[in-house]
Write a structure and sequence with these properties.
The structure is a single chain. The chain is mostly helical. Among the domains are: 125 residues, no CATH class; 60 residues; 100 residues, no CATH class; 68 residues, no CATH class; 117 residues, no CATH class. The chain has 19 helices and 6 strands. 10% of the residues are buried.
């Protein structure tokens, strides 16, 4: 307890002028003076504080008071548990704080209330009262003064060091803010320039398209005018020929009339009657002989050339005959083609009848022996989402596909229930991205999140140089996105998802590439083909409205669907596709033979994907046709080689077979196919005709499997068409 004569302490009101923030820099010359001033003020405060804090004996009031000065515990540590227990047992219940401690706490509370904590240097100001209290302790406890002073100095040195570092970093912070603002301004300016340039280029494109349309219209009008002028020229030519013949006939008639008039004038002249009769008789006789000879020549000419037509009529008839002969040859060729097609259709009809009978017998056998079809409506309550989601999942799928869908739904539920996956170890058969020993966490993402993550991985893979293998790239991609600590957990989680969902296009293709069942060039080439087709359709859409008339995607009117040449976007993009497959693509895109020519198609919808990565039927049909065409190509190669699957084949023989079934293959593509088939690096690929080609052999089945995994497609027709 405190001394009864102890008086309450009267602390002097401390001015806030001597409290300085720690971060404010001052001159070294003023530092000593300021420090001395603070010491003097602290000494005055201490004297004032200690004026009423002593007991009657002149010592500080002990607390607690019950401990005797003569109590000495030998062989006991002051901080041990035994010491605390012994001291605690002897503690009286009525102990209170000494007056000195209460006065220090009151002083600290008042000083803190007087501080202005709204400024930036509030923390520095708040530290100053605590410093004063610590100075009081150092001065009052003489025994511990060296230790307490060293502690205070160590903290002061560290605070000074931190202040210097803050002062050094403040200019850098200001510079960083300035640089950031400049960069933002430059970025905004560049974006504004790019927007202006893009708008100008779009306007220029529209103007050029309009100019092209105008020039095309002028060209069509000029062609029509040239046709009319040619027709008029032919009519004028015939008219002038008729005029020429009529003029020749008229001139001959005029000459005849002139000769007759001259003869009549001679006959009527008076001098004729005075001629010699004998002379006239001889002249008459000679005239009659000339008349007889002329009459004979005229009869001969009539007999020889009575049936001869004019040359102009002959040339016209000859031209007509030539045209008719050409039409006859064309009709004969058409008839021959139609006859062959008819025979092919008859054969197809007969084979179809046989297949129909075979299928009917198989159907009867299946109906007799098969189990009844399952009632898939029972699955409505078992699938998350109820009846509506089950109908959406089951639309257009057969029983086998519905089993896959049901297994995926069940597997997804089981994956959700798992919290951890067991590690597969470090065996050589384990993929590199799954080599881990222990337990990894199941991140439990949604199906949409997995699809989005896989799409981001594909985008990054396409843009980089592809130096590392795909599994290594996949794990490094996860490390970049989730950090090294969570990369393995995400690898196991995504692997389980893509292994489960076979019906999802993005997951199934990623799983095939990741496990080495398919080369990544197959996916990249398919995406490039879809992008090229979209670009072709955009080029046809001159108005950039996103609409395309169905006339541009169907055969010419009046021609059969199988015989007409397609002047369409699909035919120009896929020149080697058969007409029936082009028709399948058109029907998958929404066209039907019964639709009118005025139908408009929003072609951009043909390339859309839903949130889970599923594409529309048009893109699915493109992928199905690619797989079928690759199988047909490899079957042709196998038939051309004429070997069994377990037989060995040499590199020159495969080269020759590829050139026979696809003569349009260039050297680079051919070498690429051969490297894929025989798994040869580019440096070990021999040139054509080298002797060591004969030593490179592999099993036919292995070669076909390697080609099946790669991006392989036909480059041209099997038989080169003759140049016209």
């Amino acid at each position: 307890m405190d001394s009864p004569n102890s008086q309450p302490l009267n602390f002097p009101t401390t001015s806030r002028a001597h409290l300085r923030p720690l971060g404010v820099s001052i001159d070294d010359s003023l530092f000593t003076e300021t420090k001395n001033t603070q010491k003097r003020k602290l000494s005055q405060k201490r004297k004032t504080l200690l004026s009423g804090s002593f007991s009657i004996g002149g010592h500080l009031s002990p607390w607690p008071r019950y401990i005797s000065d003569q109590t000495i515990l030998h062989n006991r540590k002051p901080c041990s548990d035994d010491y605390r227990k012994r001291a605690g047992l002897q503690q009286p219940l009525g102990t209170t704080k000494p007056r000195y401690l209460e006065q220090l706490e009151n002083y600290l509370r008042k000083e803190l209330l007087l501080l202005d904590l709204s400024t930036d240097s509030a923390q520095e100001l708040r530290l100053q009262p605590y410093r004063e209290i610590f100075e009081f302790f150092i001065e009052d406890f003489k025994t511990y003064k060296p230790l307490l002073s060293s502690i205070k100095n160590a903290y002061e040195v560290m605070l000074a060091h931190q202040r210097e570092k803050i002062r050094a970093l403040e200019p850098l912070k200001a510079k960083l803010i300035t640089v950031n603002e400049n960069c933002n301004e430059r970025i905004l300016a560049m974006r504004a320039e790019e927007r202006d340039e893009i708008s100008m280029l779009k306007k220029e494109k529209m103007n050029l398209l309009k100019l092209i349309d105008k020039k095309n219209e002028e060209k069509i009008s000029l062609q029509i005018e040239v046709t009319k002028l040619r027709k008029n020229l032919a009519e004028e030519y015939l008219h002038y020929l008729s005029e020429r013949d009529a003029r020749k006939i008229l001139i001959a008639d005029l000459n005849e009339l002139r000769y007759q008039r001259e003869d009549m004038s001679l006959a009527q002249s008076p001098g004729v009657w005075g001629e010699d009769p004998m002379k006239l008789t001889v002249a008459l006789k000679m005239a009659r002989q000339d008349l007889t000879r002329t009459q004979m020549e005229l009869n001969t000419m009539k007999a020889n050339f009575g049936d001869v037509v004019p040359r102009r009529d002959f040339e016209m008839q000859e031209k007509t005959l030539k045209e008719l002969q050409e039409q006859l040859e064309s009709l004969r060729d058409d008839y021959e083609e139609v006859r062959k097609e008819h025979e092919m259709l008859l054969q197809l009809h007969m084979s179809t009848l046989k297949e129909r009978d075979q299928f009917y017998s198989e159907l009867q056998e299946i109906q007799r022996t098969s189990t009844p079809r399952p009632d898939w409506s029972k699955c409505e309550d078992m699938v998350a989402g109820g009846r509506d989601r089950w109908h959406m999942l089951a639309e257009g799928k057969n029983s086998d596909q519905l089993v896959d869908v049901l297994l995926e739904e069940i597997g997804e539920g089981l994956l959700r229930e798992k919290d951890f996956f067991p590690g597969l170890g470090y065996g050589e058969s384990i993929p590199p991205f799954l080599r881990f020993d222990g337990i990894v966490e199941n991140k439990k993402p949604t199906k949409k999140e997995v699809v989005k993550l896989l799409k981001d991985a594909w985008k990054e893979r396409i843009t980089e140089e592809q130096k590392e293998k795909f599994p290594d790239f996949f794990f490094s991609f996860l490390e970049r996105h989730f950090g090294p600590g969570d990369a393995m957990a995400w690898a196991y989680t995504i692997f389980e998802y893509i292994k489960l969902f076979h019906t999802n296009e993005v997951m199934s293709q990623f799983y095939a590439v990741l496990m080495g069942k398919r080369k990544e060039s197959v996916y990249i080439k398919q995406k490039q083909t879809i992008a090229q087709l979209l670009k072709e359709m955009t080029n046809v859409d001159s108005q950039n409205e996103g609409l395309l008339t169905m006339e541009q995607l169907r055969p010419q009117p009046g021609l059969s669907a199988l015989m007409s040449p397609y002047s369409t976007v699909l035919k120009s993009t896929f020149p080697l596709k058969k007409d029936e497959r082009i028709q399948e693509l058109m029907e998958a895109g929404g066209w039907h033979p019964s639709s009118s020519n005025a139908d408009l198609l929003d072609y951009r919808l043909l390339f859309m994907e839903d949130e889970e990565g599923q594409s529309v039927p048009f893109v699915q049909k493109l992928w199905e046709q690619y797989v079928v065409e690759k199988d047909e190509y490899l079957n042709e190669l196998k038939q051309e080689l004429g070997l069994e699957l377990n037989e060995e084949v040499t590199l020159p023989k495969v080269r020759e077979a590829l050139m026979n079934i696809d003569p349009s293959l260039d050297k680079q593509t051919l070498n690429h196919y051969l490297r894929q088939a025989f798994q040869l690096p580019m440096t070990e690929m021999p040139e054509e005709g080298e002797e060591r080609e004969e030593g490179i052999v592999t099993q036919l089945q292995t070669a076909l499997e390697q080609l099946q995994m790669s991006d392989i497609r036909r480059m041209g027709p099997r038989e080169q068409e003759p140049a016209s």
